[in-house]
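Researcher: Predict the fold of MFS transporter.
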Amino acid sequence: MTATEVLQPTTGPAPETPRHRGLLTLLLVANASMLAVYMGVGAVLLPTQIEAIDPAHKVAILGVVGGISAVFATAFNPIAGALSDRTGRRNPWILGGAFASLAGLAFIGSVHTALLVGIGWCLVQATMNVYQAAVTAVVPDRIPAARRGTASALVGLALPIGGTVGVLIGSQTAHHLRTGYLVFGVLVAGAALLLTTLCRDVPRREPAPAVPRREQLAAFLSALSHHDFRWAFIGRALMVLGYFSVAGYQLYILDDHIALPAGLEPAAAMAILTPVSMVAMAVSTVVGGLLSDRWNRRKVFVAVSAALAGLVMAVPVISPTWTGMIVFSALNGLAFGCFMAVDTALVTLVLPRAEDAARDMGVLNIANAGPQIIAPFVASAIVTTLGGYTPLFLVGGALSLLGALAILPIRSVR
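Model: Structure tokens for MFS transporter follow.
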């Protein structure tokens, strides 16, 4: 079988077959393009454009734009997931989200005020989360439970690959913003075409019957009533909040907090640091996912990696130097890569109902997008009121440590 054949949902243990490997390759490309947009635009192009528009208020503006746009991400991801569950299809949502994002990115590249940039980024966050909701649901749809750790690890390589590609494209096009935005739009649209063309989509089941909106809302949030899913949600939310409180301001951290070598600009510094972080992330993603499958243990990997992510936040505080940032980037990449790979596998094992996988993964994705609503506002307030980025690192570290503790109450997964 090849990736062009339909892969039906499966629940029992099964060896990894060529069809699964082909599907995972397509998912790797699809997720990498998505993360290239999030990292390249969110961490490089958007801050660069905002700084050019209003350098005196760049921290506050980036906080407002990031926070409001994350509201759109939080809302659209689970809604799109529930709708794709109801229709029983993924591909139309993948294609629609990708091409709408292309239009939104083209719009941002053509505007010159903070307000219009913010509106454009809200549109991109909304449409990219339609795309993300459908892509995310494919693993629990089609990969056997016994292979989730390996699958999550392989798909998890999208973060180091996509992040590196995104930052490199962003740093190379930072002085040509319109071109940069268009490149990212074409990248995600091309990945969507590749996945939907090579992986045929048919309904997994009959479309769900219409139900009253009140019942839809109750069903939508019902996953959080399940003990283990709730704690997985909390752990993911705390970890993501700690990570993005710092990551969203990395360009400004390099500009205002770190003593860079003479002649090294912040955007160029990010182009060096990101591959360091992403290589470490790739190694820990693969090793963590494979070992968690081999040992049939998830919690210890998730908790230890979250704790490490919290502890390494102290490195730029102790040593606000270029060397310190390199060490921080490597260790943070190791921690975050292992966490995301194994935590994704853990989450697929605590989903309440397989037939509502996209809806419930959409609810979980609130733990990804929701903290990003809070993170820009909190980070901006910390930097402006507490006098710099040192308190920001300390708060981010504390949140990641709390995320490690939140994993411990999960009972149904070892």
